[in-house]
Specification:
This protein has 463 residues and is of the alpha/beta class. It has 19 helices and seven strands. Strands 1, 2, 3, 4, 5, 6 and 7 form a seven-stranded mixed beta sheet that branches. Keywords: Coiled coil.
């Protein structure tokens, strides 16, 4: 059952009345943010998504939104967040939780976040921006576009480690299927110790850089491939037997057992791909399209960024559009690693939809340049488009890029790197702890927390 506001918070208890008034009053940043989030219209996307009068009461929406803000504002885990809110009177007041009441369980917060999904949180960000426009806190006359990589929470992938992970996952899932009472009579040998021995040998050989050590590593990887093939073959037999048995099950446990079998099926498919790509590498072919870099997050891509610290990052590319006031207007998590120039027009159109107005100026780096992009963006009634052309330029192009407005926009565009750095350093944008399609949820919550904090600072400056 959906609860919009915590009615118990409005009524002070006897204990609350004994506390000094200063304890129950919000100060500084939290007071301004509480005022921003107090707008009931911001809850509309959540009500549309989960408007149910059945079932047990959920966390009040105003409490949920405020707790999610604190989580990403201070880079806290769900469990740590609940402990911190429980220990702090001011955070309890901010989250609209009575001082004597218990804080919602962290598992409930996690489940509710996944249930609301990316679309709901994107609508929340859109509403916040439109409210800021209505109150004339922002003008959004110009936007800058850039891309970055949000890393997946995975270890550095090697062929050996991927094979090892595959064997562990298959072994674990087969055990769960058997514990659930399905395919109990099927034969399956645990080969994790054999895999571990070979991984330790590879680590020992990898310390040396000579040809003999490299050949020893290749030999051990081949052994790992054979072990993984055996495990995969056994897992396939378990899967076949489990699918036959599940057809006869008619009780309430059928859905949970079917979900386990589906997980095993997906893992078998992924491990099969890992074996194929490892065989390709052993043959000398290192250029493999759609390479799996983690069995736990199969959508993560190796993205070359050319940075000194990490030349290749493993995760997803995210496109961002930022206003002149420093707010993130729109974002999009990309599948694979598309070229930046394919994203320029898409991000401008998305920003126009969010703001319900056309920006006067658009700036982006040279990776977004194409003559077609310039024409299309100008065709959207954007007055100035500043995207430098890479490579050799004609006299006409040089003259165009030497104009005062063009140079001004290019200088301003460079500030977008600082915003991305701030998002990664303070708002959880550096590493995504969600996997797969849920990356969009993480991105939107991070942007929500950043935008609300930025708006609070703008409100203080104006007042």
């Amino acid at each position: 059952m959906l609860i919009i506001r915590n009615e118990d918070f409005e009524q002070l208890s006897v204990f609350d009345q004994l506390l000094p008034k200063s304890c129950l009053e919000l100060k500084g940043e939290l007071a301004v943010i509480d005022k921003i989030l107090d707008d009931e219209s911001l809850l509309t996307p959540f009500i549309e998504k989960l408007n149910s009068k059945c079932g047990r009461p959920s966390i009040p929406l105003d409490t949920y939104i405020r707790m999610m803000y604190l989580k990403f504002r201070y880079n806290l885990g769900y469990e740590t967040l609940c402990k911190e809110v429980s220990d702090s009177i001011s955070w309890k007041v901010f989250c609209h939780i009575p001082v004597c009441a218990e804080v919602p369980d962290y598992t409930t917060l996690a489940k509710l976040t996944k249930r609301f999904g990316e679309d709901t949180l994107e609508k929340l960000n859109t509403l916040i921006l439109r409210k800021a426009l209505e109150k004339k806190l922002i003008k959004a006359r110009k936007i800058r576009i850039d891309t970055t990589v949000i890393k997946s929470n995975i270890h550095h992938p090697t062929d050996a480690s991927l094979l090892s992970d595959g064997v562990k996952v298959l072994t674990r899932l087969v055990k769960k299927v058997k514990d659930a009472g399905v395919a109990v009579k099927s034969e399956f040998q645990d080969r994790t110790r054999s895999v571990k021995k070979r991984i330790l040998n590879i680590v020992k050989f990898a310390k040396n850089r000579n040809n003999e050590a490299k050949e020893s590593v290749r030999k051990k990887v081949k052994e790992l491939v054979e072990i993984t093939k055996d495990v995969l073959h056994s897992a396939n037999k378990v899967l076949t037997m489990a699918k036959d048995e599940i057809k006869k099950v008619k009780n309430k446990q059928r859905s949970s057992k079917a979900a386990l079998i589906q997980k095993l099926d997906d893992a078998i498919s992924a491990v099969g791909k890992i074996i194929k790509q490892t065989n390709e590498v052993l043959k000398g072919n290192t250029s493999i399209p759609d390479r799996i870099v983690s069995i736990f997050d199969q959508g993560a891509r190796p993205i070359k960024r050319g940075k000194a610290k990490a030349e290749i990052e493993f995760g997803r590319k995210v496109a961002l559009a930022e206003s002149e006031e420093g707010l993130i207007i729109s974002s999009h998590v990309e599948e694979g690693n598309p070229c930046d120039k394919t994203l320029a027009v898409q991000m401008v159109k998305k920003s126009i939809d969010v703001l319900n107005k056309v920006p006067e100026e658009v700036a982006a780096d040279r990776g977004f340049y194409s003559s077609e992009n310039e024409r299309e963006i100008q065709g959207l009634n954007v007055k100035h488009v500043a995207i430098p052309k890479p490579g050799k330029k004609s006299e006409k192009r040089l003259k165009h890029e030497r104009q005062h407005w063009f140079k001004r926009l290019i200088r301003w565009r460079a500030g977008g790197e600082a915003t991305i750095g701030l998002l990664k350093r303070k708002y959880g944008f550096g590493v995504c702890l969600f996997h797969g399609e849920n990356t969009g949820i993480w991105v939107n919550l991070s942007i929500f927390s950043y935008n609300v904090t930025k708006l609070a600072k703008l409100m203080v400056q104006i007042c």
